[in-house]
Structure formats: C-alpha cells, structure tokens
Amino acid sequence: MSETTADQDQAEDDEFVEEAANHHINPDVLQNISVAIKVEVGRTKMKIRDLLRLTQGSVVELERIAGEPLDLLVNDTVVAQGEIVLVNDRYGIRLTRVVPASERMRNI
C-alpha cells in the first residue's frame, strides 16, 4: 500500500471517529460490546447430492487460491486480511491489510 493511500485511509478513519464522537456515542459502552470474529479460509457451492456423498477423507475444493490472504470478519463484515501464523501451538492471523473504517461502513 502506498504511503499516500495509507494517509488517505487514516484521514478517513479519523473523520469517521470524529463523526461518531459528534453523535455522542459513549466509547466505554462500545468497547464492552462482544462481537463474533471469524477467519474465512474460503467458500464453495455444491449440490445437495454432492454434499450427501461426503465422507471422512473427502476433499472439498474452495474458491480461494493457495497463498491468497484470508479474510478476518467481525460480525460477518470483512475488516482485515492476513496470513495464518502459529502462536504457542494455536493458530493466529497476521494482518496484512486493514479495511478502512469508511469502506467498512459502506459495506454494512
């Protein structure tokens, strides 16, 4: 991402935060709301007859290409993309791109 684009994204995020503040949103209330976070590896569609044929060891091919960034979703909205990492024997995601707040708001 270019520095100009990053600066524009930051300016848009700052504008969004300022606009939210003008609507008197209590940040303490917002910070205590639980959200569902998911990492999406990929998707596919299949017919029910193919779904019923799945057994242990079956492979389901996904639409995402190997090596392509994974999506980080918060309440089913993509907020970032990244790559899988291991953290103390657990999976994690290293963010490689954060979707600007202004873009996330357009997609809601």
What would you note in describing this structure?
By secondary structure, this protein is of the alpha+beta class. The chain has 2 domains: 1-33; 35-108, Roll (Surface presentation of antigens (SPOA)), CATH 2.30.330. It is 33% helix and 27% strand. The protein contains 4 helices and 4 strands; from the N terminus they run H-H-E-H-E-E-E-H. It has a 4-stranded antiparallel beta sheet, with no helix packed on it. The radius of gyration is 18 Å and the shape is elongated. It starts with a helix and ends with a helix.
Look at the helices and sheets and give the structural class: alpha+beta
CATH topology of the largest domain: Surface presentation of antigens (SPOA)
How much β-strand is present in the residues? 25-35%
Largest sheet: 4 strands, antiparallel
- Order of strands in the sheet with the most strands? 1-2-3-4
Mean pLDDT: 85
Net shape: elongated
The level of helicity is 25-40%
Identify the CATH homologous superfamily of the largest domain. SpoA-like
**Could you list the spans in which at least 5 consecutive residues all have pLDDT below 50?**
none
CATH architectural category of the largest domain: Roll
Q: Could you state the order of secondary-structure elements as H and E?
A: HHEHEEEH
CATH class value of the largest domain: Mainly Beta
Instruction: Kindly report how far apart the N and C termini lie.
Output: 24 Å
Total strand segments? 4
Estimate nothing, just give the exact number of structural domains: 2
Radius of gyration: 18 Å
What count of helical segments does DSSP give? 4
